[in-house]
Amino acid sequence: MYFADRLDAAEQLAKALHAYRGRHPLILAIPRGAVPMGWLLAERLEGELDVVLVRKLRAPGSPEFAVGSIDESGWVYLAPHARSAGADAGYLAEEKRHQLALLKERRARYTPGRAAADPAGRVVIVVDDGLATGSTMMAALHAVRARGPETLVCAVPVASRDSLELVRPFADQLVCLHAPEDFFAVGQFYRTFGQVEDEEAIRLLGTAAHTTRAVR
């Protein structure tokens, strides 16, 4: 199963999530790749869009390799391979400080002048463009769960089977359109998988916030 691009994947996810239309779900996208997807889902499901901010903890000397993840509250997930990848206590303490500072900066940039949407008592759908290790999604779900949603949904177009089992306990419902045996990377299942720039994410979030205020 392949997707033309992120918006095609979001259209298909919207169909799988149609039962939540009319319940004003809160769609929380993991930046930056999932923001266009979250924008479309909020449109299709008549919901509200915001971001849930988490950062991966990078392996020493290998910034693309994750040894865990951290959310805005400082909660940390460490992968089983963290120690073997060279991430000792001193390194992790510094990496956590660095990533928390980036999360604070990103929140100010993405949602300037307004507080993050409150998930308490609401249907919340956390969306990403795919799951490779699952550590980022797990941190995102943990962050949202701590704020008391009525129903917490994890929604992704594609994922590795191992990552699905990792995140499953953290959500009330897990919606994944494709979990292939031959998973190597999220991008292999998209014909177009370009980088989403900050400017586009900020524009979409601003448009969605304006629409939500107008509806209210």
TrEMBL record:
Keywords: Glycosyltransferase, Transferase
Pfam families: Pribosyltran (PF00156)
A GO molecular-function annotation: glycosyltransferase activity
Domain Phosphoribosyltransferase intervals: 7-178
UniProt KW Glycosyltransferase keyword: yes
Domain of life where this protein originates: Bacteria
Entries under InterPro entries matching the protein: PRTase-like (IPR029057), PRTase_dom (IPR000836)
CDD domains on file: PRTases_typeI
Designated name of the protein: Phosphoribosyltransferase
Species, as recorded: Caenimonas terrae
High-level lineage: Bacteria, Pseudomonadati, Pseudomonadota, Betaproteobacteria, Burkholderiales
